[in-house]
Amino acid sequence: MGKIEDKKKLKKEALLESAMILFTEKGVAETSVSDITSRAKMAKGTFYLYFKDKYEIRDHLVARKANEIFENAHHSMQSKWQTISQMDVEECITFLVENIIDQFKESPSLLRFIAKNLSWGVFSNIRIKDLDNRNCMDVFDELLEASAKVYRQKELMVYMIVELLNSTCYNVILYHMPVGIEQFKKDLILAVRNILHQFEDSAGAKQLETA
């Protein structure tokens, strides 16, 4: 059974690798299941043993790549600050955002693929293996819980930050429009800070202090 499972994993990985190459080179719309299986040197029927259609394999890849990016950013943050309590939550989140921007800058093709296909549903359910399989929202919740500040509508706040990052970096990194990424990064970080301030619950913070 072990050899059979290993073969299945290898076939699935070959399909994922082929799909990733084609999606980043041609785009999802221009890639067919036949293209994926042909590149992986498999029969078309084999594809359907693992995935329902090309959109399911796309979502799988988006989740995997977004996982890697978020995991890299989180590890960088932890290596700089030993515990979350050593750093203000605002600094933690802006650090994560800046690190993710830098990763996109290093891999424009990855940005092109993720920015066009990363939905909120996919992002919020991404499971991070190196963090005990917690999802991305769990990580943000941990940061926010460690803060002395109280935030309202936390999921909406994180949604706005993720969408802002996902939508605005595309043209700036790929086409340097309307400005270059280094100039843009400063204003984007400021915008993220403003979103955090917007969702601060000052009344809740006061209640926490007097409790």
Largest sheet: 2 strands, antiparallel
Average of per-residue pLDDT values: 85
**Inertia-based shape:** globular
Q: Can you tell me the CATH architecture of the largest domain?
A: Orthogonal Bundle
Neighbour order of strands in the largest sheet: 1-2
Stated plainly, the CATH topology of the largest domain is called: Tetracycline Repressor, domain 2
End-to-end Cα distance, whole Å, is 58 Å
In helices, the fraction of residues equals over 70%
Radius of gyration computed on alpha carbons: 20 Å
Q: What fraction of the residues are assigned to beta strands by DSSP?
A: under 5%
Q: Using DSSP, what is the number of strands?
A: 2
Task: Count every helix, treating DSSP H or I runs of 4 or more residues as helices.
Answer: 11
Name the helix and strand elements from N-terminus to C-terminus, one letter apiece: HHHHHHHEEHHHH
Computed structural class:
mainly alpha
- Quickly count the domains: 2
CATH class of the largest domain: Mainly Alpha
- Taking pLDDT < 50 over at least 5 consecutive residues as the criterion, the unreliable ranges are 206-211
